[in-house]
Design a protein that fits this description.
This protein is mostly helical and 100 residues long. Helix content is 73%, strand content 0%.
Length: 100
């Protein structure tokens, strides 16, 4: 291997980062098939989505914002289901003013 190729590989390793995450098995299978039919690898798909979000693509940004709001609303809904007494008990137990 010559110096030029070695330098390219070193630069690639330094500049590129990898991401690992889990997908539900059925989603993984369906996504893989859909992307295969479009002749697009999963890596290229996720790279494309990442680039579009970073570039501020309005559709992708809106999609992410909607999902973030759904997650927040679900958390708020879960909090709304907590009984007041239980909430006050937890606050009291974790109070910084609680005497030991």
């Amino acid at each position: 291997m010559n110096n030029k190729n070695l330098n390219k590989q070193v630069t690639k390793v330094i500049n590129n980062k990898t991401v690992h995450f889990e997908l539900a098995g059925n989603i993984h299978k369906k996504l893989r098939v859909m992307l295969f039919l479009k002749e697009l690898s999963m890596q290229r798909f996720f790279r494309l989505m990442s680039e579009k979000l970073v570039e501020g693509d309005p559709y992708i940004v809106k999609l992410v914002d909607e999902r973030v709001n759904e997650i927040k609303n679900k958390k708020l809904d879960n909090l709304r289901e907590i009984e007041e007494k239980d909430l006050y008990d937890v606050i009291e137990q974790n109070s910084p003013f609680k005497k030991n």
